[in-house]
């Protein structure tokens, strides 16, 4: 599919299935259930910066929510093998995210964009930054040299991420977002109106009371719980680690739905 083409909803659904961004995804059922179990057991690593208290201690309740919001197999007896993401739910969530981005652009809001999955989603976030900046939004510049996750936080094309030993880091940790927000507050700079992110970056911002939207894989239930509870505005279900160019039609659909022109 040409990258300058805006796909229809059905075109995008077909693309998501073909590239396994949704449909029969690479994340196994065993891995999904293990993460749901850890979240229910109170393992903070799997809470992605959210405070879930004692509200989600039933693994079956987590599975039920993930079936509803992500499209994993609902059958409790399905314990191993293939699991799924419903592409219709992915596109529904993209439409909801588009509403948030449209509002941000209309209000020329301050927006902070970040990723814990630079190997997959960096291009999605960079395109979002460019389109929001062109629409008049202020893309929040983070303070330099912030330590986090045994590395430091930096921005590339307006997207915050972690650099460790000259490598961009895949991290679920809320620590980098905590470092950014604490540094902004400590210097008297205003916090963002909106955070567009994934993993603990999105969860931490939402828990701090900032409007946040994010992307999450089917083995990252916390952000879906956060949306269900109203802490996170939108969570888009997808496989977050396919070849980066496969996300380009999805990004084009999102920006078009938000009324944002892609930056060439």
General description of the model:
42% of the residues lie in helices and 16% in strands. With 264 residues, the protein is α/β, with parallel strands linked by helices. It folds into two domains: 24-84, no CATH class; 87-257, Rossmann fold (3-Layer(aba) Sandwich), CATH 3.40.50. The strands form two sheets. Strands 3, 4, 5, 6, 7, 8, 9, 10 and 11 form a nine-stranded mixed sheet that branches. It has a two-stranded antiparallel sheet with strand order 1-2. A hairpin with a 2-residue loop joins strand 7 (159-164) and strand 8. Helix 4 packs across helix 9 and helix 6 (175-186) packs across helix 7 (199-207).
- Main CATH class of the largest domain: Alpha Beta
Low-confidence stretches: none
Class from helix and strand fractions: alpha/beta
Number of strands: 11
Count of helical stretches: 9
Helix fraction? 40-55%
**Rg from C-alpha positions?**
17 Å
Number of domains: 2
Descriptors for this entry?
single chain, 264 residues, alpha/beta, Rossmann fold, 2 domains, two-stranded antiparallel sheet, Phosphatase_SCO2771, Phosphatase
Quick overview:
The protein has 264 residues and is α/β, with parallel strands linked by helices.
SSE inventory with pairings:
Elements: H1 9-19, E1 23-24, H2 29-40, H3 59-69, E2 84-85, H4 87-106, E3 110-114, H5 118-134, E4 138-139, E5 147-148, E6 151-156, E7 159-164, E8 167-168, H6 175-186, E9 194-198, H7 199-207, E10 211-216, H8 221-229, E11 234-237, H9 248-257
Helix pairs in contact: 1-4, 2-3, 3-8, 4-9, 5-9, 6-7
């Amino acid at each position: 599919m040409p990258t300058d083409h805006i796909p229809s909803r059905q075109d995008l659904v077909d693309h998501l299935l073909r590239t396994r961004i949704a449909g029969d995804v690479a994340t196994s059922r065993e891995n999904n259930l293990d993460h749901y179990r850890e979240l229910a057991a109170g393992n903070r690593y799997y809470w992605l910066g959210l405070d879930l208290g004692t509200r989600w201690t039933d693994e079956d309740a987590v599975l039920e929510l993930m079936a509803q919001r992500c499209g994993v197999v609902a059958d409790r007896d399905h314990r191993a093998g293939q699991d799924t993401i419903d592409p219709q739910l992915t596109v529904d969530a993209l439409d909801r995210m588009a509403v948030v981005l449209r509002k941000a652009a209309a209000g020329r809001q301050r927006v902070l964009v970040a990723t814990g999955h630079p190997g997959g989603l960096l291009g999605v976030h960079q395109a979002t930054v460019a389109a929001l900046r062109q629409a008049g939004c202020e893309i929040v510049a983070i303070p330099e040299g912030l330590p986090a996750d045994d590395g430091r936080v930096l921005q590339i094309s307006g997207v915050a991420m972690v650099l460790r030993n000259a490598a961009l880091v895949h991290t679920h940790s809320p620590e980098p977002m905590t470092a950014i927000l604490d540094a902004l507050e400590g210097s008297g700079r205003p916090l963002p109106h909106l955070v567009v992110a994934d993993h603990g970056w999105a969860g931490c911002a939402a828990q701090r009371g900032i409007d946040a939207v994010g992307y999450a894989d089917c083995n990252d239930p916390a952000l879906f719980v956060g949306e269900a509870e109203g802490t996170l505005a939108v969570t888009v279900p997808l496989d977050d680690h396919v070849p980066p160019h496969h996300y380009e039609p999805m990004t084009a659909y999102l920006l078009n739905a938000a009324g944002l022109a892609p930056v060439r």
